[in-house]
Every structure is written in C-alpha cells, then in structure tokens.
Amino acid sequence: MPAGEAFTPDQRKAIDKAIMAAHQASGYTFSVYVGPSEGDSREYARRLHHRLAAPAESVLVLVDPSSRALEIVTGSRVRRDLDDAEAALVALSMQQSFAAGDLSGGIAMGVYQLGEHSRRPTSLHTDSPS
Amino acid sequence: MRNRGRTALGIGVLVVGLGLAAATPAAADTPTTWEKPPAMSTLEALLIFVGIPAGLFVVIALLVMAPSVAKGPRYRPGLSWWADPEWFNGPDGEGEERPALERGTSDPVGATAVSQLELSDATVHEGGAGARW
Questions:
Q1: What is the pTM of this model?
Q2: Which of A94, B1, B69, B129 is packed most tightly, with the most Cβ within 10 A?
Q3: Nearest to B127 among A19, A52, A74 (CB)
C-alpha cells in the first residue's frame, strides 16, 4: 500500500484529546508514537522517551503496527504514581483493541487510562502543598 | 392404491396439458383496442434494457464503496503497515513527523538533572510495560 496518513482527522483529534485529558488528570506529559521501530522495540521506545522535553515526567506510548508491538515507557518520576503493573494492565486493554483492528480507539483509550492511573493522590493532611 | 395414484397423476397431467395448449401465441397479443405504440429503435431499446440496469449496478456499487473510500485505508491486523510514522505530542510539537534519530546520543538512564536531584533512590528509573498483538 502507498505511504499515507495513518489516521483520519477525527481519529487524530481523538488521540490529541486523550493526550490532553491525561495531562490534565495527572499533570504528566503523554506522547504517542505510531510507526515502525528500529531494532528492539523496547530499546527504541526508551530512546524516543529520552528525546522528550522532560523524560522523567513523561509517558511514551510506542505503537508499531508493522511488528505489532506496543511499548509503554514511564519516566522515573511518573513511575511513582503509575507502576509497571498498572502500565501492563493498560497495555493489555490496548492490545485487545489493536488485535480487533481499532488502532486509534485503542490508543485514545490507553492514554486516557494511563492518565487516570497516574493521577496523583491528593494529600489531605499536609500543611504545605508538596 | 397404486391404480388410484396413477389415475390422479394422469388427471393432473391432462389438466396441465390443457392449460398449456390454451395459452397459444395468439392469446399473448395486446387487445386490438389498444393504440399501436411507435416502433422502438435498437439504440433506445439498448438504453432502456441495458443502460438502466448497468447504471443501477454502478450506483449501488458506488454507494457501497463510498464510506471506505472516504475513510481511507484502514488498519487491519496482519497486513503490512503503510503510513508514515507519526508522533503525537512529540518533542517538536503535535502531529509532527518523527525527526531522524541518532543512535547513542541519549543518556541510558534518561533522567534529567532536576529529576536526579529529586530522586535520591537510584534504583527508581523509568518503567512501563509492553505487549504484542
């Protein structure tokens, strides 16, 4: 098939909206890369993650449709609120959508869930906000 | 019993045969009181009896194909990926194409100076999860 756009404007808007909502929910930055990964997908996702402005406070989602790979990389700061088990849970539900052929829907839903899971617990008993 | 069945069959054949014999070609003519329509040219006949059905085929086919054409190619698991890489909310803004990556330029730990100050525990690095489908 010829090279072209992966998503329709509506799908793109849905993904952008999910990224925004996740950011508002958690305060962290979410980034989604859709494309082929060179070499090991995990390593590639980590390299992409390092390229972000603030990797420690960012989550990178790599979706490689050609090798059917999904990687979620959480920054060291994000990881305090979003542990690997939660990320694996989100990866599982995204995997379900992808296997059913719903790429953009799976991405948007996954980013929403990541944002919800990484919501920082509000501390009610501290004198000064941390 | 057997004879009776055979008689019934014989009567049935007779009735059908009579019916067929009554439908002579003359009976298929239009009533004489009807007006004679002008003769149809071959072109006209072709247009009506071939053109209209063919047109209908085309219209129905277009109606069926239109949604998928409008949506563009759709992702199907198992087929090769066709699209350009896309990075949402990437380092150079939203929806930008992925810039060329240089191998080995990034710090393997990936923590910025600020987060290193924050994180006294060196074992807490980036995490995450992966999946295949």
A1: 0.62
A2: A94
A3: A74
